[in-house]
Queue: 2 jobs
Job 1
Amino acid sequence: MSKIRKRRVLPCIQNTVCADLIRGAKDKQLKVKGPVRIPTKVLKITTRKSLCGEGTNTFDRFELRVHKRFIDLFSSPDVLKQITSITIELGVEVEVTIADS
């Protein structure tokens, strides 16, 4: 039997990462907008438990919830690189997009 591995990222961990980013930006007196919560995306997969197709119809249901936040920081790319160099918890992904304004 294979072991079942569960990895759970709690929303409070995401909130602490957002708070760390905002705190770093406010320490440098930058203009900050956010965090803005994006609606949770729920991905569901339903599969048959029985491999051969015989027997009772039993199913496994798997679900992945994707929580997103975005923060607008108004700064130069060099300062932004310093702010985003914080340590980030396992399972939390941070994507940085630099837009010319």
Note: Residues 11-83 form a domain with the Alpha-Beta Plaits fold (CATH 3.30.70.600).
Job 2
Amino acid sequence: MTRAPIDSPYGDLPLDDWAPPADEDAPPPYDDGPPPYDDVPPGYDAMPGPGPAPRYAAPVPDAGLLASGTAASDDALPQHRDFTGADPLTVLKEVYGYDAFRGDQADIVAQVVGGGDAIVLMPTGGGKSVTYQVPALVRPGTGLVVSPLIALMHDQVEALLANGVRAAFLNSTQSPAERAAVERAYVAGDLDLLYVAPERLNLSSTAALLSRGRLSVIAIDEAHCVSQWGHDFRPDYLALGGLGEQFPGVPRMALTATATRATHREITERLGLGDAKHFVASFDRPNIQYRIEPKVDPRRQLVSFIRSQQEGGSAGIVYALSRKSVEQAAEYLRTQGIDALAYHAGLPAEMRARHQSRFLREDGVVMVATIAFGMGIDKPDVRFVAHIDLPKSVEGYYQETGRAGRDGEPSVVWMAYGLGDVVQQRRMIDQSPGDRTYKMRLGQHLDAMLALCETVGCRRQNLLGYFGQQSEPCGNCDTCLTPPETFDGLVPAQKLLSTVVRLQRERNQSFGAGQIIDILRGADTERIRQQRHNELATYGIGADLSDQDWRSVVRQLLARGILVAKGDYGTLALGEPAAAVLRGDEQVPLRRDVMGRPASAPRARRASASDTLAEGDRGLFEALREWRAQTAREQGVPAYIVFGDATLRALAEHRPAALADLDGISGIGAKKKDAYGEAVLEVIAAS
């Protein structure tokens, strides 16, 4: 195995930040396999699932369909009201407990109920599921939902069952007998919604099954997976364009939370939705605060951030690129007293299921995971998301950070970003399969992500601008609350570039950032003396800047393409704009990193769910939370399946005294009123 030289830039690499300090014989951090490709789908409709699904108990009385997706018996389907032909607003109130649709929901529902196709771009937490679930209940037949995520199928079916909706799924976690029970229910017309993975939908046996029943609507979730240039391409999505011919007259929907204009066009073309009506909601998530800071001491920074966010037992997700990094980070967090669990595709299926179950059901659990995890988890009360590695695209970053605050409550997303992240991502692009055009697209995705990291303006404004939406500065992200200082970086850039040029021309040598910085700072190291780099004209000309300052300069020049990282060890070379910089023909404004500020610095304290309550109502809110936790444990379901925090807050504010009063509480439909109404009133009366 080729070993990384001691002067390689990997001392800053995120994959090694969780390991003990490396010695000269330490292997490069890619021994675990080049992330993030270690979590590609292992096979048929298995992307990315938790392993065997936890066998939840029925969430409410008479909810006969278990989360396994099958009926306890063929006649054990939930007792329900037939909403065929009903007013969609009636369905919204009776099933979900909401008095009015939000944003474009009403128009989308009307389009689909009327038999029209729709393409829906709506942020995570914006209520996409309602736009296809309500039409599925109003139109005759069964709504077909195509979802690439097994875990998400489980969670959504659980939530639907809790609301009295007859829902099930078909996927590879089921036994033949379980699948047969679901198939019989579908053919008999006893299902309101059926979830399938695209891989299964493309089987001839599934097509034959669907033709034996009646479909009310076809909803293709995560539709951006059809984009071959997207961050989450799934080849089986390409075949979904034929559903219109296979099921004429059935309205089709394509839904996604992440799509640029180019991806939007690709969804339209590849899914055969040229006649669809387009609904594009704002991608803004105003309840999320965005923070990105320089990577100095990532262990300390991550622990500080998590501790600042875990008031009241908040749950969070920490994203890393590789399995090794995930396991090291989770282990370290546990040594710091943080209840952290690892999750990646290399863990045994039973362990993944156990960890997922704990994360969904317990307070204060932090999941450290590869990107495969969060995409399949429908947990609305994730209060924070952290990245210890740089995402490879803005779309990926937006989708991953979008797992926070899906309930609309204040949440924080944080990332530590350093020089090694840039080197690592550039190398991954160089080593990726594909032609020059493909690699160029990957480079463009990375450039946009780096621009978000290095911006001196509002991060939210930059993020929304990437998706083609205009906005004013938010006043709540880190750069708005603490505007970064900028300085003229022309001279430092020229010094650095000159050193790279002299090494190449005078010595025919290339080195990583570590050795270049040592030369500039005039370091007296054995490597400097061995290579006689103390004889270079640029030796010591950068002693006025610290090692961390120079790393910031290198990082920003790499982000702009003025420098490029080459080869396995990230040796530095000049990019195309470098000549103009050396001549002094181009300005190089750089941001000055603020070092040593803890992640918990009070830029803006995240409000807890109870902060908006009057002092006298907070005790009741906590009592309701305790009741919810106990009820969820008894029924074997996540707490949010019972009620969300917003519903508990409304109960604490309004203090209903009779069952009829619950009709005015958002989030309490008829089924949950019957299941939990008396118990809730008892808690309120006792407070």
Note: The chain has four domains: 88-280, 288-484, 487-587, 615-686.
